[in-house]
Amino acid sequence: MAVGCGTKCAKSILISFNMLFWLSGGTLLVLGAWVFLDPAKAHLFHLVSASQAKRDVIYYLAYALLAIGGSILVIGFCGCCGALHERRCMIGTYVVFLLFLVAVEMGVAVITFVFREEFMEGLEARLSDQLVNKYGLDIANHYESNNVANKDFTTSVDFAQYRFNCCGMRNDSDYQQTKWWARGREKAGQAERPRNVPLTCCVLSNSETEEPWQSPQPKQEQACQDDNPRVHERLRYKQGCLLELVLWFRRESTVLVACCTSIAGLQLLGVVLSLCLCRNIAEDASA
Length: 287
Hints:
Elements: H1 5-37, H2 39-48, H3 52-55, H4 57-85, H5 88-120, H6 123-133, H7 153-164, H8 179-187, H9 221-224, H10 229-232, H11 242-286
Helix pairs in contact: 1-4, 1-11, 2-7, 4-5, 5-11
């Protein structure tokens, strides 16, 4: 078949586009795997979520990212084959799959944007109540099942305090109203002073080790637990975690929305290029 200049140009551009298309698929695969491997997302999303069903959303999202990324790699291969062999049928199938992926990605972006505020609704009151009634009391049920989404509230709070250098939800005095604080005073003997704040509220000497929030080692524990602000100054974090947690969730959701819409826009460009190639192939065939 004689190949016109327009067909050659469109074919080259479409093949080059598919290189970028494959890169976007690989990026989604990495993001999906990162959700499973990064402990921050599991711990912090546990705090943001109001129920177990909502906590599982992050894993459904990871599966969706992996599925979309894998589909992009396969569809991109079909697009390259169709362009190289000038098969309008294959290119047409490629366009249909691209449009389907655009719909899925825009759906993920819209759902993330719409439900973001629902996750934030009542967050301060919910976390404050859980801190009072659950912190330090759920260690016995550290794992309810093998699902990492079921990690207990205490571990998630400890991680947040380590990650954001914060203490409590509003400030470090939040713990004075908790059952953990009261139980510590019931159990403490005359030779043992009860803790005013968890160890993860203190500046740690083992912050560079793996998972330091699991076995925190304060630089000066006695000074950190002291009632006098002048003594525990610079050794205890005072700011609450709530603001940092909200900023983290908004940032993560914004990145997801931007990623999905950007890749969807890239795929729409692929649709345009594919249609141009189909038109040029038809013109060459009729010439």
